[in-house]
């Protein structure tokens, strides 16, 4: 299906037939790394994306949702995005008409959407004005009409109508993992691919000798929750403060008691584990009791890109590296390749119709005779 906004909207860059587009990504991967991935996980072609952000575009009295234009510093009106989950497509088709009501559209400048595959959604309306009880009344009517939750946000103000989180279930082995995704926190954008990534990692480590797991850049526990049962204990760290309570809630909802988590940056995690600095945040966690066999890193697009952090990671027998940017993965892999070999690799087409690619490498330490 050709999107009518293609080549105007900056959201997608590729409109080849899906199998051709995916094959091109595989070729790019092979050129960059010099080998073929062990596994290739394709996406649903359309209706896969669980998060979106739009700006409001105004033409006289009328309002539209808009995206950045392709290659230009301009914005274009959008009336649908076929990449979004069905519930989100439904919302953006109806929304401009429903927002013509003055109280809801006055000083509205952006919207965010978060959905799940069971047709639940949160719409966040972001304003340059203080929200009052009249706004709340109108927003409550809109939430009822669309059967969704609505969050109104402006400077120092947030009003939640319904819920500020969404439930998601991911099947793993013979169980179903339960997650909450909180609006405003990081979550993997393609739920179908996310389930495949979680299952891939759990199978990839099945035959390893496992003790404890250190996870850096853990977000709200997407991988932590799934992998905890394979390890004695897990120490999970993340720089965003609001992610840690969600991780704890996710652990509780899945009856997991062996995860220890703290808000720490990558650098702080290393200081803590090297016992160079005491953190009040770690007062209830005895880091001396951990015996790590594995480290999992899932850094942002910039990769690890820090020699001290890479040296630290390179001490672990197994490294599970999850990357959303093959370029920075390549650079980090050159460093890690001095001590480790890649024993499993997979690519995941988390972002169809764009050049982006998600990759997982499992590294194992090379033991040299000395
Ligand atoms: C690609 S997301 C992965 C999150 C999680 N693994 C998931 O699957 O949802 C990267 C995470 O790294 C965190 N992060 C970014 N810079 C960081 C840093 N310097 N130290 C620790 N965490 C960081 C972000 O807040 C984000 O949660």
UniProtKB/TrEMBL annotation:
Tell me which residues bind S-adenosyl-L-methionine.
Answer: 188, 217, 238, 298
Q: Which UniProt keywords apply?
A: Methyltransferase, S-adenosyl-L-methionine, Transferase, tRNA processing
Matches recorded under Gene3D superfamilies? 2.40.50.1070, Vaccinia Virus protein VP39 (3.40.50.150)
GO (cellular component) term, any one: cytosol
An MF annotation (GO) of this entry: rRNA binding
Checking SUPFAM superfamilies in the record gives: S-adenosyl-L-methionine-dependent methyltransferases
- Active-site residues from the entry: 324 (nucleophile), 324
Q: Which Pfam families match?
A: tRNA_U5-meth_tr
Read off the PROSITE patterns from this record: SAM_MT_RNA_M5U, TRMA_1, TRMA_2
Q: What biological processes does GO assign it?
A: methylation; RNA modification; tRNA processing
Keyword tRNA processing included in the entry's annotation: yes
- Family from the record: Belongs to the class I-like SAM-binding methyltransferase superfamily. RNA M5U methyltransferase family.
The UniProt entry, under PANTHER family, shows: TRNA/TMRNA (URACIL-C(5))-METHYLTRANSFERASE, TRNA_TMRNA (URACIL-C(5))-METHYLTRANSFERASE
Tell me the protein's name.
tRNA (Uridine(54)-C5)-methyltransferase TrmA
Which source organism does the UniProt entry give? Helicobacter anseris
